[in-house]
Design brief:
Radius of gyration: 33 Å
CATH topology of the largest domain: Aminoglycoside 3'-phosphotransferase, Chain: A, domain 2
CATH architecture of the largest domain: Alpha-Beta Complex
CATH class of the largest domain: Alpha Beta
CATH superfamily of the largest domain: Aminoglycoside phosphotransferase (APH), C-terminal lobe
Largest sheet: 8 strands, mixed
Structural class: alpha+beta
Number of strands: 28
Helix content: 25-40%
Low-confidence stretches: none
Strand content: 15-25%
Mean pLDDT: 94
Distance between the termini: 43 Å
Number of helices: 18
């Protein structure tokens, strides 16, 4: 926000600009600033500049460092939109001047065009990635920059956060104190031990939402172009540059971890991150936020009337509260994944161990219960075995449906596959607000075995009871037991058994030992197991992510790779014989290539990234990964996609007869009579056709035959169908591309 200067000050600055730079100022406007006087300058010749008058007591060496850094970056990162330092007529980059009766240091910078990050919406993944790329380019360019003034102690440096410790109990609200303690603990336990091993450099150190510049493109074309304000430059751990950018860019986001991932990926593209940096990144983000709210606390005491000094306090607290509820290990694994590393570091050790010790594991179920034969259910989003949503949205309906499939397959037990995206995780337990709208956990992380209630469940390997609970919410686990198994060299794996009977939890104690083959429970019935057809959900976890008595049995599609790394496929460990495996689902690229080969170009695709839609129900379309889309585009009947009554009626009739209208049949007459009872007089006759195009074509011919006229009055931009006559009256076909 620009505001007018007091006339005496404005006149003095105009004189300084003429004297030292030969610039005649057409307009001067004061800009926000914590300490310095910042002034926007528009010259009479069309140039734009930023005039900075240092505050009293400013360290001159620090100003020389900023000048040197900008000159270095102009040479080593010319693609970034950064301020260029304008010399005075005498060639100086810093000029001592008198302003308002005091000696100050003046410098003039080129004006960098763009919008402040804080004023830009939406923050798309592409915009977030561009922020990471700019910060990565900046870090890469500063690797070879050195200046003695950068070696200083600065309170905004996350690597020197110890100064906040005395203020942890000074915050007024208990929830704030809890957040502060949590972030401090993260710093002490997960960042501080790594700091000596992290690469160091001189950093910009202040990529906040008022220092990040975005181009003028709107919507999904917006990109970060540069940074301003190098006043907090400091020699510190290089990854702090990224941690600070993430801390501010993740404010106001429902899911800050999801927002951070494209930033990290963009940074890594230009300044590769090592494993220690990835482990320290999340704690250092939290540390910068803790520094920010502590600084706001002190600023409020010292400068209660300066609102600029508290500008980030409220969103910082909100973000800290969200960080508190995200497992740090999940953030660490997610950062590894977007940087091309195996998400869960212990996964490779587990894979090697299980390859050597497979015979010593299992079975979880007695082999004889599977002798009646196994059938691999298709429980994916587009499954025709599941049928209409009405066939499986209630537990008993789903049980009847699956039982019918088993009987048709002549099998006694059903298998639900690992890694399958499913359509029936629909309750609030699976829902969360993401940065692009609501999302549901749909990707199955275990193996299901559908067997009768009372079937015994056994421990596959020696261990101890880690935790247990009765998670009785609708479509939750019901009674669940989690075992912890020590393998070798500190390697652990946890096994989870969901949908047990309530009786299974009796007598259990946390920490009690279990032997291989020991019965740990029985399958529960539909009234006690969370409301599911009786089955065992068996899952492995290499990290409990701090949870007890619970662990997600399904992952968000965007976290598939991370959670499938934490949770190995347990299919080969359930019973001695191999379980049937699902055929791989085609990916979007394969489908797109085949479509281009096989379908005519008249059948166009929508969206830059085509949607792989496998199910529709009422107002929603469902992608292959289970994501829901509100359908406001297609020619959907008012009842919506796949309305159960419509599906049922069509299914019944098509099993008997599906032909044209040249024969007598009572159903078409009953339908016409029912339809006409709902329309106003004098409408009394029905013409049944197959599409809207066919209906409009027939209406055109009837109107022309009745009126004897050929001209037609139509709505501009309208679409009326794909027959020749309908296209001829659809103006959008002639008004532009289409």
């Amino acid at each position: 926000m620009k505001k007018e200067l007091p006339p005496p000050l404005e006149n003095a600055l105009r004189a300084l600009l003429r004297e030292h730079y030969g610039i005649a100022a057409r307009q001067l406007r004061q800009l926000p600033g914590e300490l310095d006087l910042n002034v926007y300058v528009a010259s009479t010749e069309g140039g734009a500049y930023l005039l900075k008058i240092s505050h009293e007591g400013e360290d001159e060496a620090c100003l020389h460092m900023q000048v040197a850094a900008l000159r270095h970056l102009a040479q080593h990162a010319p693609e970034l939109q950064l301020s260029r330092v304008i010399p005075t007529r005498s060639g100086a980059f810093l000029q001592e001047v008198e302003v308002q009766g005091r000696q100050r240091l003046m410098r003039l910078l080129s004006w960098v065009p763009g919008r402040l990050w804080a004023r830009v919406s939406p923050h798309t993944p592409a915009l977030l990635q561009s922020l990471g790329e700019v910060c990565g380019r900046l870090s890469a360019a500063l690797q070879h920059f050195e200046h003695p003034a950068a070696h200083r102690s600065l309170r905004w440096d996350p690597a020197r956060a110890q100064w906040v410790a005395p203020y942890l109990e000074a915050f007024e609200q208990p929830a704030q104190r809890d957040c502060a303690r949590y972030c401090w603990q993260l710093f002490q336990q997960q960042a501080l031990p790594l700091l000596p091993r992290l690469p160091a450099s001189i950093n910009h150190n202040d990529a906040n939402d008022y220092n990040i510049l975005v181009n003028e493109a709107r919507g999904y074309e917006a990109r970060v172009t540069g940074l301003i304000d190098f006043g907090d430059m400091v020699y510190t751990r290089r990854v702090n540059e990224l941690a600070i950018a993430c801390a501010y860019a993740c404010m106001h986001k429902p899911d800050p971890l999801q927002a951070a991932l494209p930033i990290v990926a963009g940074y890594h593209r230009h300044m590769p991150l090592n494993e220690d940096e990835l482990a320290a990144l999340w704690p250092l983000m939290a540390t910068r936020l803790l520094i920010s709210v502590t600084a706001s606390l002190l600023n409020r005491r010292q400068h209660p009337d300066n609102a600029y000094l508290q500008i980030s306090e409220a969103p910082a607290w909100a973000l800290m509260e969200k960080i508190r509820h995200i497992p740090p290990a999940l953030a660490h694994y997610s950062f590894r994944q977007v940087c091309g590393l195996p998400p869960c570091p212990q996964r490779s050790a587990f894979d090697r161990w299980i390859a050597r010790h497979r015979p010593s594991w299992g079975p979880v179920l007695d082999p004889q219960v599977l002798q009646a034969g196994l059938h691999l259910f298709d429980l994916s989003v587009g499954s025709t075995e599941l049928g209409n949503v009405a066939d499986f949205d209630k537990a008993r309906g789903m049980q009847r449906r699956l039982q019918a499939v088993l009987e048709e397959a002549d099998a006694g037990a059903g298998i639900g596959a690992y890694g399958e995206a499913r359509p029936f995780y629909s309750t609030d337990n699976y829902r969360e607000m993401g940065n692009e709208g609501p999302r549901w956990r749909t990707v199955h992380l275990g193996v299901d075995v559908f067997l009768p209630p009372g079937t015994a469940v056994r421990a596959p390997y020696p261990g101890r009871v880690h935790s247990f609970a009765n998670r009785a919410a609708e479509r939750d686990y019901g009674p669940v037991v989690i075992l912890e198994h020590e393998l070798e060299d500190g390697l652990k794996v946890f096994s989870l058994y969901g949908h047990l009977s309530r009786e299974s939890l009796r007598g259990l104690q946390t920490g009690m030992t279990v032997e291989r083959g020991q019965q740990i429970g029985k399958l529960g019935n539909i009234d006690e197991n969370g409301g599911w057809p009786p089955h065992l959900h068996f899952q492995l976890m290499l990290d409990m992510l701090g949870m007890e008595g619970d662990f997600p049995g399904a992952a968000f599609p965007g976290q598939r790779e991370v959670f499938c790394s934490i949770c190995p496929d347990p299919s080969g460990l359930l019973v001695p014989q191999p379980l049937p495996q699902p055929a791989p689902q085609p990916d979007v690229a394969t489908l797109l290539r085949k479509r281009q080969q096989l379908l005519g170009r008249s059948l166009s695709l929508s969206y830059h990234q085509p949607l792989y839609i496998r199910r529709g129900y009422l107002q929603h379309l469902y992608a292959a990964d289970g994501r829901r889309y509100l359908d406001t585009v297609n020619n959907v009947p008012h009842l919506g996609h796949q309305h159960p009554r419509v599906v049922s009626a069509a299914r019944r009739q098509m099993a008997v007869l599906n032909t044209n209208t040249r024969y007598l049949h009572e159903t078409i007459l009953e339908y016409a009579q029912t339809l006409l009872a709902r329309v106003p007089q004098p409408l009394s006759v029905v013409h049944f056709v197959n599409s809207g195009s066919e209906a409009n074509e027939l209406a055109l011919r009837m109107a022309q035959a009745y009126s004897g006229q050929q001209d037609m009055l139509v709505l501009e931009t309208g679409y009326h169908g794909n027959t020749n006559a309908c296209i001829a009256i659809s103006s959008y076909k002639f008004d532009g591309k289409g």
